[in-house]
């Protein structure tokens, strides 16, 4: 493992929160020169109350496999079930649970166990009628509920700089507006390296990847990718959107959702769908 600059070695295990900007900068300077496995090893030693939030995309699966070889007690998994995942994604969740023997904590939209429950509350095709609040309802709020329930202070993500958009300037470690630490162990890998690792290590993968998909989310916002297109071109195709809300400003999204819930139109919609 690459040697750490003076200062990183002086940090406590686990890190004491909140993390100041100076320490964050030192840590990122150190982590930037390490392999994904070394970053994950560092994370298991330094990050407090560490979990992995995953939608079982390729990068997340690589991290799961690497962790299984690094430690006998990998961070537990949090899966945000939007209720609109492909059947192949749900099959993959079960395959990963069987392969690695990991606990998977599933969180769904508040008050919902099924698509019918969700549409009774929000109406049909809510991702079209209110895309921002849809993201908050199916991803952001369930994530915060999970973090509060398990006192999560740090999470492992599957984001990479090569995915572009808001991720282009990604660092190994980030602190979001809530103070949550986000470790991005494969931040410097491209899609080819991720695919190579998956094949070399026989890691379970989504069957849709053999059908022209490269990044898989909800069925209504995921499409196949043409040869030569960016790997995330099939997510929210035709829109400027590049993130689902999980890595955006939580407090801003919460305020928008609260404002939406207070509108007369929202109250009428709830009454109609009750």
Automatic annotation (TrEMBL):
PANTHER family: PHOSPHOADENOSINE PHOSPHOSULFATE REDUCTASE
Species: Gymnopilus junonius
GO CC aspect terms: cytoplasm
Protein name: Phosphoadenylyl-sulfate reductase
Entry's family note: Belongs to the PAPS reductase family. CysH subfamily.
Pfam families, per the entry: PAPS_reduct (PF01507)
GO molecular function, one term: phosphoadenylyl-sulfate reductase (thioredoxin) activity
Keywords: Oxidoreductase
Pathway listed: Sulfur metabolism; hydrogen sulfide biosynthesis; sulfite from sulfate
HAMAP family per UniProt: CysH
Domain of life: Eukaryota
GO biological process entries: sulfate assimilation, phosphoadenylyl sulfate reduction by phosphoadenylyl-sulfate reductase (thioredoxin)
Stored NCBIfam families: cysH, PAPS_reductase, PRK02090.1
Phosphoadenosine phosphosulphate reductase domain boundaries: 50-223
